[in-house]
Amino acid sequence: MATFLKLENPPIKEIIFTISYNEIIDNDGLQRFVNEPKIKDDFKIVHKSIKKEIHINSSSDSAKLSSLHDGFIITSPNKKIIQIKKGSFSFHKVDGYCSYQELYENMIEYWELLDKSTLDDLIVNNISVRYINLILKDESENSQDLLTIYTKNEFEEEILNFRNYISFKHKLDKSLQINIFTANEENQNGIVLDITLTKSIIQKNSCKDFYEDLQGFRNIKNEVFFKCLTKNTIKKLNHVK
User: N or C, which end of the chain has less CB nearby within 10 Å?
Assistant: First the structure.
C-alpha cells in the first residue's frame, strides 16, 4: 500500500460511502434493517425519509401533492449516519476525521445487514466514495495559494466567487471516474474541495469483488487529494510556519 503524508488537522467535513443496487427494497425490508439489533444499538435517532411527488391532472388543470415513505435516515451518537433508500445505501461520517479503514469496515458490516434484511441478494450497480473538505483561507491568501486547481483571469483582481468542476477517468481503470469540485464564496472563510470516486459495477460473481474496488479507492483518493493541495496548504494543515 502506498504511504501518504498524515495531516495534523485534516480539513474534512463529510465522508460518504454509497452503494446503489438494481432491486427496489420494499418498506418491510427497510424496516427489518432498522430493527436489526446491531443497528438499534449503534444508531439512536431514526427518521423516515419522505419523498414528495406532484401529480397533475391534465383534464382539470389541478395538482395534488403526495408524500411517500422512501427510506430511513438513522444517526449514531458519534456522528455516523446511514441513509437507506429503496435503491441505494449511503454511510456518512460528519464533523470530524475518521480513518478510511474504520469507515470501510463499519460500512461493510452495515451493508451486509441490509443485504440479509432484504431476504434476497442485492445486485450492486454502482459504488462511490466522496470526501468533502473545507480549507480555511487567510485574508492575505487567494485560491492559487491553497489549491493547484483554480480559476485564472486577466482582470488583475481576485475572483471572489467561483465554481470549478472537472471529471476524468482513472488512468489504470477506465470504469472509475474521478470528479473534483472546488468552490469559493465571498462570505465564506475557506475553499471547498469536494472529491468523488465513482465506479459502475458490471455483474460480479461475489460482493467481495466490489469490496476490493472500495479498498482500492483509498490510495486513489489520497493521491488525488494531495495533488490538489499546494505546499503552502500542507504546511498550514500541519501547523508549520
Answer: C
Question: Which residues make beta-bridge pairs with 199?
Answer: 127, 176
Model pLDDT for residues 125-148, shown as the tens digit of each residue? 999 999 999 999 888 888 889 999
| Predicted TM-score (pTM) of this structure | 0.89
Beta bridge partners of 5: none
Q: Which three cell numbers stand for residue 138?
A: 487567510
For 203, phi and psi rounded to 5 degrees?
Answer: -40, 120
The Cα–Cα gap between 234 and 153 comes to: 25
Rounded Cα distance, 78 and 94, in Å: 9
> In angstroms, what is the C-alpha Rg of the chain?
21
Give me the sign of the Cα torsion angle 167, 169, 175, 177. negative
Grid cell, residue 199, equals 465506479
Q: How many CB atoms are closer than 10 A to CB 227? A: 10
Residue with cell 474534512: 12
**pLDDT, tens only, 200-212:** 988 655 566 799 9
> Which residues, at least 6 apart from 210, have a Cβ–Cβ distance to it below 8 Å?
19, 124, 127, 201, 204
Q: Which residues contact 187 (CB under 8 A, 6 or more apart)?
A: none
Crossing angle of the two packed helices 100-117 and 27-34, in degrees rounded to 10? 130
